[in-house]
User: What shape does this take?
Amino acid sequence: MTPCNKLISLLTLGLLAGCGNDNVGDVSLGLLTSKDIKIESFEDPEISGVTCHISHVKGNLDLSDPSDMGISCRQTGEITAEMVENIDDSLSGEVVFTASKSVLFKTLKIRRIYDQNSQSLIYLSYSTKELEGSYKHSLSTVPLYGTLAWQDPNR
Assistant: This one.
């Protein structure tokens, strides 16, 4: 794949990946700004018993939005051992949500990481700037204690 085709594929993925999510909140940042705080809700595609809410700033007329974001994830349904067995358990986990934050090269991502020691799901939201990187991020955890996925460590 040529670099140009790769760029087009990444842009298309970034624009489409955020589609279909539920916008549950929209807060204006003031009368003289075109920027709003958007709050979106999404269900983890593999762990259907987890719902995350993401807040991020979006400008109506801007080519690039700020990288700041917040995330909160909670158990909202049943979580089974089969669901957890099917997720990526590597240290880097897997991306479960993406949304474009600019016309080029900036994406909001949410990555699920499984902490086997504490039996918790970690959801890390962060912004990528493909050319220079970004340090902005937010974190939320969902413990498996009390779910069908919990494994007694004393067994």
